[in-house]
Amino acid sequence: MPIRYWIISHLATAVAIAVCLATGCSKPSKTAAEMDASELLALFQERQHVDAKNFVEGELGRFRITHKLGPDAGQLYIQFHLFGVLPQERQVRLTQLWPKYEKRARDAVISLVQRTETEHLCDPSLTFLKEEIAATINRVLQERLLIDVAFSDFSTDRENGMPWSIPPGTENKPAPGGGHGGHGGH
């Protein structure tokens, strides 16, 4: 197990224990922060027992997002192809739910990327962003289906004129306008 997952899992355990001690473990209702901590803890525990052959990747779409860097600092143009990593037995459920929640999930991912600290978007491991995207999509789906996400073609650029990657088979189709979360030609 990579050291970062070990550290993150122990940190999540410490956070969960601190929340439990601070608020009492026997309360009948939880706040959103407590639910997020317990959800995060469950996600980390699930990742510790990952058996790669029982997990699959589900297509979640292409994203093109503009991220403001701050006053007079310009923008960062981000694009990626997103895949959800989930246990094989949850794939059918994701296939059932995704058409119903796709637009809301895409909107939530775009919003998340736009408000994420630039340092997290430029981190080579993208660990924070991956965890936040998986949790965000699970909240939209109202089920904890994803245990992780994976990126293909993740890129950031400060130049607006740089070309976006084009999905295979759509080279001759006009590119969608904007760069603010276009679907990218599925």
Topology:
Elements: H1 3-23, H2 32-48, E1 55-70, E2 74-87, H3 91-115, H4 118-121, H5 127-141, E3 148-157
Antiparallel strand pairs: 1-2, 2-3
Helix pairs in contact: 1-2, 3-5
Describe this structure in words.
The protein has 186 residues and is an alpha+beta fold. The chain is built from 5 helices and 3 strands; from the N terminus they run H-H-E-E-H-H-H-E. The C terminus is likely disordered. It starts with a helix and ends in a 29-residue tail after the last strand. A 3-stranded antiparallel β-sheet has the order 1-2-3. Helix content is 44%, strand content 22%.
Distance between the first and last residues' Cα:
36 Å
Mean pLDDT: 75
Tell me the major beta sheet.
3 strands, antiparallel
Strand content: 15-25%
Order of helices and strands: HHEEHHHE
The number of helical runs is 5
Low-confidence stretches: 18-23, 25-33, 172-186
Task: Tell me how many strands there are.
Answer: 3
SSE class: alpha+beta
| Shape verdict | elongated
Helix content: 40-55%
Query: Measured on Cα atoms, how large is the radius of gyration?
Result: 18 Å
Q: Strand order within the widest sheet?
A: 1-2-3
